[in-house]
Design a protein that fits this description.
Blueprint (H helix, E strand, L loop, with lengths): L1 E2 L2 E2 L3 E3 L7 E4 L10 E4 L2 H9 L6 H15 L9 H13 L7 H13 L5 H40 L5 E6 L15 H8 L4 E6 L6 H12 L4 E4 L4 H6 L5 E4 L3 E3 L4 E4 L2 H10 L4 E4 L5 E2 L5 H4 L8 H4 E6 L2 E6 L12 E4 L6 E4 L2 E3 L3 H7 L10
Parallel strand pairs: 6-7, 6-9, 7-8, 9-12, 10-13, 12-17
Antiparallel strand pairs: 1-2, 3-4, 4-5, 10-11, 11-16, 14-15, 17-18
The protein binds 5-S-methyl-1-O-phosphono-5-thio-D-ribulose (MRU).
5-S-methyl-1-O-phosphono-5-thio-D-ribulose binds next to helix 2 and strand 11.
């Protein structure tokens, strides 16, 4: 997407240096725009863990670039494919919840192993990671096309009054390689001249809504209003929200949606107030081996300090301030699961379906879905 009229993806190969991958440091947004060079597998692991890059599709793409960079670090005296499997194991441990990480690493391992030379492995790795990135953009644009139909339908009913959408966390272009998932229909609606307005939920504790989604919308001139997370239910009760659009980190084959903590509460409020609640679900975020999300999904727990401190701009400097008593204990679950019964539908690159096994099978008949026991 555009920043000050210059097009950016969130991750790219350095234009002059084959062994350097560049990313936008999302920890500093919206106050500072800085590009970071990643040269080693360890630097990629840190960038994922510390959330320099975040969002399920981008976590996958970054890990894939990590596999590519590993071809520049391989010690001379080791067995090539064992080495790549070690790199795979290192990268897959960075964050536990987003299934895109495993999807992308499996794709890369297939390409990078079984070759006759390191140069060949590097060539196949580069080709595969570029395909993963381009495919992500195409997928998001398709999600945009299918999601647009929902917005057009609402706009028709509202006779030109703005369609009010609520979103949680950042499932925008910053969470992907480009274009975003939940934001893709919004950007397309804007392109088509449809009047949209977005309530952006701040998304404590790391404020991806306030810091990243709001920034995207300022840069793309999307009318929006920042809200406290807890205001969503009130807005829905007062008929101020026409549609809820969120992303996903892992969706089960039965349609249960795991996404940023707080998504479940938004789904409950939407259900209680008959507001359509859709998850934008690229097929790379569907776990084709998972039937019971509540039993099987590993919900990431992050540092308590993310809850106890808030980051912001003060006197031109980015600072973290303590908001609780220093010795108060805090817990920090990063994701929750919305049961399929509260999800109106899934917006995938192949179309919109019910949040159910039947719905998903209907759109992805070619996928091997783990049978119910
Ligand atoms: O902890 P984050 O910022 O990686 O969490 C991101 C989300 O929950 C997004 O909604 C999800 O990854 C979908 S991104 C298209």
């Amino acid at each position: 997407m555009k920043i000050k009229d210059k097009h950016y993806r969130t991750i790219w190969l350095h234009p002059q240096k084959e062994s350097v991958v560049q990313v936008i440091d999302q920890r500093l947004l919206p106050h500072r725009f800085e590009i970071v060079d990643l040269k080693t597998v360890d630097e990629v692991c840190d960038a994922i863990k510390q959330m320099t890059v975040r969002g399920a599709p981008l976590i996958g793409a970054a890990a894939a670039w990590g596999m590519y960079l590993s071809t520049f670090e391989m010690p001379g005296n080791c067995e090539r494919d064992f080495y790549f499997e070690d790199v795979y194991r290192k990268l897959i441990q960075t964050r536990p919840t987003a299934v895109n990480l495993k999807w992308a690493l499996d794709e890369m391992l297939q390409s990078i192993t079984g070759n006759d030379s390191l140069e060949e492995s590097r060539w196949y790795a580069k080709t595969r990671v570029q395909w993963i990135c381009d495919d992500d953009v195409k997928t998001n644009q398709q999600i945009g096309v299918h999601g647009l139909a929902l917005i057009e339908e609402l706009a028709a009913k509202k006779n030109g009054a703005p369609v009010n959408i609520l979103t949680h966390c950042n499932a925008g272009w910053l969470a992907t390689v480009d274009y975003g998932t939940a934001t893709a229909p919004i950007y397309l609606a804007k392109e088509k001249g449809i009047d949209v307005h977005v309530y952006v939920s701040e998304t404590r504790p790391r404020n991806q809504g306030a810091q990243l989604t709001a920034w995207e919308f300022v840069e793309e001139n999307i009318p929006h209003t920042l809200i406290a997370d807890n205001a969503a239910g009130h807005l829905m009760q007062h008929g101020k929200v026409d549609l809820v659009l969120v992303g996903t980190d892992r969706t089960s084959v039965t349609g249960d949606v795991c996404n940023k903590i707080g998504t479940y509460l938004k789904a409950l409020a939407a259900y209680d107030n008959h507001v359509p609640f859709y998850a934008a679900v690229p097929s790379t975020s569907i776990d084709w081996h998972m039937r019971d999300a509540f039993e099987e999904i590993k919900i990431e727990e992050r540092s308590a300090d993310e809850v106890k401190y808030v980051q912001g701009l003060h006197d031109g400097k980015i600072k973290s301030v303590l908001i609780s008593p220093e010795h108060t204990p805090a817990s920090n679950y990063a994701f929750d699961i919305t049961p399929s019964k509260y999800v109106t539908g899934l917006i995938t690159e192949k179309g919109i379906c019910e949040a159910s096994e039947e719905g998903i099978r209907g759109l992805f008949p070619e996928k091997k879905i783990i049978p119910s026991s």
